[in-house]
Every structure is written in structure tokens, then in C-alpha cells.
Amino acid sequence: MLAVINRMALSKDAKGFVDGVVGYLSGDARSRDSVPKVSELFRKVTAKAQKEKTAKVETAVALNAGQLERLSKALETLTGHSVDILVKVDSSLVAGFRITVGDWVVDTSLSGQLEAMETLLL
Q: Across the strands, what pairs with 17?
């Protein structure tokens, strides 16, 4: 399962974190020296997301009460507190979901995976 990050929607800290990780994984020697900085940026992004009180959830199909309850519990575990969930059904996702909490974005949608594959192949 690919998780897709919409880099344009990220904060400065989140973009720095993503850039640092990508540089590190690509073997860029300069990026290896930035591991402490990347760790600090990750801490900032995580702390910010954990303060968020709202999660935006886009799904390809409507969620039932049981699914919403399990999602709510999972997000509560991740953030350390309860969050309000704003659900939007978006059939253009084809299948799966996209969850946004602060700068955290988890995209398991089929459309997101296809976009990621297109990026990798081109």
C-alpha cells in the first residue's frame, strides 16, 4: 500500500522533513548530515498534529457507524485525545480513503496510489 503525501499542502516544517527524508533515502551525502535536523522537524510536525482537534476524512464510499467508531478510536490513539471527524464522500478516490490531521496525510485511495505510480514511472 502506498501512502501519498500532497507536498503542496504541507507546512514549512513538514516540507523540510519530507525533503530531508527523500534526500537521505536517495543517498545524497549532504542529507546524511541533516539527520538531526530531520528528526527535529519530525518532532515538530508530530507535535502539531497531536494538538489538532479535527480530522478530515475523505472516503470513496460512506462509512457505517462501526467504521466511524473504529476510525475515531484509532485517531484518538494517534493524537492522544479525541478528535472531531469531518467525513466527505469523494467517489473520485475510486477506493480507499485519505485522512488529514494537521500536516499528517495518509492517502490509501486508489487514485492516490495511481498518482504515486505515475510519478515514480515518469
A: none
Q: What is the DSSP code (8-state) at residue 92? A: G
Which residue reads 476524512 in cell numbers? Answer: 57
Q: 103 vs 7, 20, 109, 118, CA distance in Å?
A: 10, 16, 18, 23
DSSP annotation string for 48-61 = HHHH--EEEEEESS
Give me the sign of the Cα torsion angle 103, 79, 84, 113: positive
Q: Can you give the residue ranges of every domain in the chain? A: 8-51, 52-122
Per DSSP, which regions of the chain are E strands?
54-59, 84-89, 97-101, 104-107
Which amino acid, residue 53? K
Is the model's pTM score more than 0.85? no
Q: Name the helix (H) or strand (E) containing 94.
A: none
CB 33 within 8 A of CB 23: no
The model's pLDDT over 69-104, given as tens digits with 9 standing for 90+, comes to: 998 988 888 788 888 999 999 999 999 889 888 877
Distance CA 52, CA 99 (A): 13
C-alpha cell at 81: 485525545
